[in-house]
Amino acid sequence: MFNVKSLLVVALAGFSALAAAHPDNKNGKYGKDHKDNHNDHDDDKHESRGPRNFIMVVPDGFGPASETMARDYMHWKDNSTAVLPIDEMVIGMVRTKATDSYVTDSAASATAYSCGIKSYNGAIGVDDDYEPCGTVLEAAHLEGFKTGLVVTSRITHATPATFASHIYHRDLESEIALQEIGYAHPLGRTVDVMLGGGRCFFTPNTTEGSCRKDGVDALAIARDLGYTTFQDRATFDSELKLPYLGLFTNDHMSYEADRDPAIEPSLKEMAIKGLNDLYRATKDSKKGFFIMVEASRIDHAGHANDPVGHLHDILAYNEAMLAMREWIDEHSDSPTTLISTADHECGGLTVGKEISGPPGYWYDPSFFAGAKATSGPLSKQWAAYTGSDQKGYLKSEIFAKYGVAQPTEQELSEGIALKSSASKFSKFLTKALSSRLGVNWATGGHTASDVTLFGWGVNSKTFAGSRENNEVGHFIAKQLGLDLESVTKKLQSNETWQADWVKPKAGHQRSARDLHSHHH
Ligand SMILES: *[C@@H]1O[C@H](CO)[C@@H](O)[C@H](O)[C@H]1NC(C)=O
Ligand SMILES: *[C@@H]1O[C@H](CO)[C@@H](O)[C@H](O)[C@H]1NC(C)=O
Ligand SMILES: *[C@@H]1O[C@H](CO)[C@@H](O)[C@H](O)[C@H]1NC(C)=O
């Protein structure tokens, strides 16, 4: 755990960066025409030497209230007034709307980050006309940089997918897997480091737990293409040559609160391993590396309205950010820029409720103290209980493990009534804790709220201000000297690939139902 106390001194540094609003972003320049593809925005008039490496960090579904909730928890826990590591890295805000919705999903927003273009909800590296767009990762690979994707979701999930694959709908994860490893990709293999979850889209439908609809063994194909593939902690801890593909879980990796460190490494461990391996592999070459690191599951906990999952994944994101920032400071021989921003807010989280007595308002993070697990596993554990002391078990093994030490009689009887429905009980449990904390959730989905922009390292401050999300893609390209346009042309020239792997069949209609069918 980072030591918040030692960080107090630099706390004010971030504010001056916020005040330096960006000069050339006025009068809705980016609001009018989302598709102003890869034009220069002279972002970096005052730029000195460019970076060798670029780290893009996406805390998925992380809104401003989430940051407050976590910081105040740390204040309570450490009895301090220190700030979070990310508080010191604030450089601005990001506006996130998609082309077809004021409220974006991860696919559209991550496409803005990877390609520098706005697209529709569900789009994976394609524009509104389903045309593939060159990504910063692909362009970096073509220019001789090494590349990485490090996530806690399935590696085929929307955010990582938009950096190394192109397809009209985010749910087509079997196809995304084959593109990501370079098999169904016109540029071949473009990713050198891949770490995360989601083995189920790489194993043939004849294996238990597979999510594929076909008999393709994508792990075997990955090995043929040169990847070392693995799924265990011991191999992760050993020295590995690039390229490698480490998938630790069948589905998403565990929430930080539920994670078994003997089986799954933390986000921080994966990110630092990625940085070290990419650094070593590029030490003697002209170009450095590009890596996208995603704290994927902050978002999932937001969808579930689960404050425990949300909090601990936010703290894990902070630990990873602190470690990466220290890594950058320690590797001045290989200058690095880090930009981090969520793709959107999730849950419509608010921190605080009104109470009648003084001080008039309530947020009490002390209720987080007893929480040892997220609502999902606890609900399954409760559904599986066959003993005779239902009330005692519910109180001490379920409620208490979720931070609710004193459930009311009413809550106990309702909990017993909901025992057989894990999903209903799970919602009920999250509500019991949320109301004690004084946090509220407006929705089980995303909201249009702006998200905070964080930066560190070379030239990061030149990106300060209020930004449209697709400016992030342009900034990365500019810093690394990448030509996205030429990659887009390369991709679009391959008609057979587009017909087979990218575009929907004739007559396809985008439907909202499609979009909501995906599992987060
Ligand atoms: C919290 O910090 C304050 C000021 O440093 C101190 O007076 C107080 O005793 C501390 N409380 C606890 C519980 O440590
Ligand atoms: C088009 O992409 C496919 C990958 O699906 C690749 O096998 C093929 O070589 C590419 N064709 C050209 C002309 O680049
Ligand atoms: C597995 O995939 C093959 C095609 O590769 C298909 O013929 C078969 O029906 C699938 N089996 C199941 C159980 O889905």
Automatic annotation (TrEMBL):
Enzyme Commission designation: 3.1.3.1
Region of interest: Disordered: 26-52
Pfam families: Alk_phosphatase
Annotated positions binding Mg(2+): 60, 157, 159, 294, 344
Active site positions, chain numbering: 106
Cofactor: Mg(2+); Zn(2+)
SUPFAM superfamilies: Alkaline phosphatase-like
Cofactor remark from the record: Binds 1 Mg(2+) ion. Binds 2 Zn(2+) ions.
Any one GO MF annotation of this record: metal ion binding
Gene Ontology CC annotations of this record: fungal-type vacuole membrane
Composition bias, Basic and acidic residues: 26-50
Cleavable signal peptide: 1-21
Keywords (A to Z) from UniProt: Hydrolase, Magnesium, Metal-binding, Phosphoprotein, Signal, Zinc
Reaction(s) catalysed (UniProt annotation): a phosphate monoester + H2O = an alcohol + phosphate
Residues that bind Zn(2+): 60, 299, 303, 343, 446
InterPro entries cross-referenced by the UniProt entry: Alkaline_phosphatase, Alkaline_phosphatase_AS, Alkaline_phosphatase_core_sf
Family membership noted in the UniProt record: Belongs to the alkaline phosphatase family.
PANTHER family documented for this protein: ALKALINE PHOSPHATASE
Name of the protein in its database record: Alkaline phosphatase
